[in-house]
Amino acid sequence: MPEVNIGKASSFQDPGRRVVEIGSVQIGVFQLDGKFYAYENRCPHLGGPACQGKILPRVLEAVAEDKKSAGRVFSRDQLNIICPWHGFEFDIRTGKHVAISKYRLRPVPIRTGGGDVYVTLPRKGESGP
Ligand code: FES
């Protein structure tokens, strides 16, 4: 599987996202707290461009001492990518759907070296949900 240099690590925002296209493969590259994550830009639901959706903190239900709902709050440590087609949400750090475990973005190996960022392309026939 070919490894491709996609640029200087310092050129990526943190937190941030960049979608790169290499040949016929689109890859969403994310940086959070100095760590890189990469996924094929294809939603496991119906193939939408999941990596190009909004990035938002996970919404949680706050529970008061009386066990009643205290409303919704944003997570302080989980950021999700939201597929623009039907709103499926995936944890950027794992690629997993936040509620339905059978849905997961396909991870792409990514590493840094010498100040650059490299992704390893999937073999032909390996991409897609
Ligand atoms: S294609 Fe992504 S939520 Fe349907």
Structure, described:
This protein has strands at 3-8, 16-22, 25-32, 35-40, 54-63, 69-82, 89-91, 110-113, 116-120. The chain is an all-beta fold. The chain has one domain (3-120): Rieske Iron-sulfur Protein (3-layer Sandwich). The strands form three sheets. Strands 1-9-8 form a three-stranded antiparallel sheet, with no helix packed on it. It has a three-stranded antiparallel sheet with strand order 2-3-4, with no helix packed on it. Strands 5-6-7 form a three-stranded antiparallel sheet, with no helix packed on it. A hairpin with a 2-residue loop joins β2 (16-22) and β3 (25-32). The two termini are 19 Å apart. 24% of the residues are buried. Residues 43, 45-48, 50, 83, 85-88 line the site of FE2/S2 (inorganic) cluster.
